[in-house]
Amino acid sequence: MKKVTGLGSAPASEPTAPSTYRAAVIGTGFMGRVHSHAVRANGGEVVGVAGSSLARAEAFSASHGAGRAHADALELVRDPDVDVVHVCTPNHLHAPLSLAALAAGKHVVCEKPLATDASTARDLTRAARDAGLTAVVPFVYRFHPMAREARARVASGSVGRVGLVHGGYLQDWLLRPEEDNWRVDPAVGGPTRAFGDIGSHWCDLMEFVTGDRISSVCAQTSRFNERRGTDGGRAVTTEDLVTLQFATESGAVGTAVVSQVSPGRKNQLVLEVSGTEGSLRFDQERPETLWAGGRERTGTVSRDDPGLSADAARLVTLPVGHPQGYQDCFNALVADTGTAVAGGEPEGLPVFADGLRAAVLAEAVLVSARERRWVDVPAAEDHTDRPKGPIRPGLYE
Ligand code: NAI
Ligand code: SOE
């Protein structure tokens, strides 16, 4: 496994970076497990864990080797043995826990959505900037080698001028009225569900790959289920699906379909980009290849392509034919977080400014759907912790 790189390599005159990635994990569900694996895969340590109860934290600690179990998440956040706090809780707790971590001088990896409204996401982004700490939001699909390859090909100009971007993010785990989750409740998940939960990933990947930005949106939202839960359930106000039409700053047009109620679709994020010279299609359920279309020649690119870009190649950890996947993306995200903590500038690390961007887009989508009109998307106001590197020049300016 790849080790956290760069840790402990700071010059003697600068604050000493920790020699091990010492993490706190808050939340013991799906993401708590995935983040913990990623920390350990990088040679790091999960020194403590907190959940919704001490019993849950203890059970997680026992099964995942996660150090001390805490009843109080804030006590864990302030533990001097912790350098990086991973916030893996339901959405409404992201902002208070991240702010507490930054106030305690800790680096943060806060799950998406960074906050359930744009104003709070802006406060968090500013707090991270002012504290000078690494502050990451896991838009993790950026870490598939073939997504990076698509980005590099667009940036190199090999697909020409991009004029059309389309695709979607489809799931079915909330198809039936008896299927319920904390994400459905706006007080916990936030006012947008399908878009905030998964549409945000699609938009992040779309802007990351194209280096372009959505400048206006026209959205519709809808629901299959007006009530959810057992015994008649409760009234639902968050959307099951969203259709989105958009325009970009560079003049491209596009569409995206986002659904958590599409039978048979488990976690299908598809992004297709068409330029004047070629098309590219990435499917996160088939992430080992990138479809590359052209008038004269069409085929698939795989991880062992001799022309693979450096940024895609650096994320290849296994020989081709031995599939890499979702957990590998998180392992790479934590590796790059470790590099950033040590003062490095890893390419394409999604930071709080990207979480703010998603929150701004979410508000534009909700306004558009509610008022049944096109809505301009404001440019990102806060570009302090913008991703470094040559691929997205001017994007945050
Ligand atoms: P989950 O429901 O599996 O786990 C949430 C955990 O938070 C539970 O273990 C629960 O006990 C714990 N929790 C609840 N209240 C708490 C409190 N007061 N203090 C500490 N812990 C508390 O949810 P899942 O799927 O792990 O999602 C967590 C977050 O991660 C969400 O914000 C979600 O949007 C995000 N997520 C991101 C993904 C990505 O690809 N970046 C993938 C899946 C989820
Ligand atoms: C559920 O819709 C979920 O786990 C999201 O919360 C994640 O962000 C997405 O990556 C997978 O699906």
Topology:
Blueprint (H helix, E strand, L loop, with lengths): L21 E5 L3 H12 L3 E6 L3 H11 L3 E3 L2 H5 L6 E4 L6 H10 L3 E4 L7 H14 L3 E2 L8 H12 L5 E9 L15 H4 L4 H17 L3 E9 L4 E2 L5 E2 L5 E8 L4 E7 L8 E8 L3 E5 L5 E5 L5 E4 L7 H4 L12 H16 L10 H20 L3 E2 L21
Parallel strand pairs: 1-2, 1-4, 2-3, 4-5, 5-6, 7-12
Antiparallel strand pairs: 7-13, 8-11, 8-17, 9-10, 11-12, 13-14, 14-15, 15-16
Helix pairs in contact: 1-10, 4-5, 5-11, 6-8, 8-11
Bound molecules: 1,4-dihydronicotinamide adenine dinucleotide and alpha-L-sorbopyranose (SOE).
Describe this entry's structure for a reader.
The chain has helices spanning about 30-40, 55-65, 75, 95-105, 120-130, 145-155, 185-190, 195-210, 310-315, 325-340, 350-370, and strands at about 20-25, 45-50, 70, 85, 105-110, 135, 160-170, 215-220, 225-230, 235, 240-250, 255-260, 270-275, 280-285, 290-295, 300, 375. It is an alpha/beta fold. It folds into 2 domains: about 20-140, Rossmann fold (3-Layer(aba) Sandwich); about 145-325, Dihydrodipicolinate Reductase, domain 2 (2-Layer Sandwich), CATH 3.30.360.10. The strands form 3 sheets. The protein has a 9-stranded mixed β-sheet. It has a 6-stranded parallel β-sheet with strand order 3-2-1-4-5-6, sandwiched between helices. Helix 4 (about 95-105) links the parallel strand 4 (about 85) and strand 5 (about 105-110). The longest helix has 20 residues, at about 350-370. The two termini are about 35 Å apart. About 50% of the residues are buried. Mean pLDDT is about 90; it is low at about 1-15 and about 380-395. The protein binds 1,4-dihydronicotinamide adenine dinucleotide and alpha-L-sorbopyranose. Alpha-L-sorbopyranose (SOE) binds near residues 171, 198 and 267.
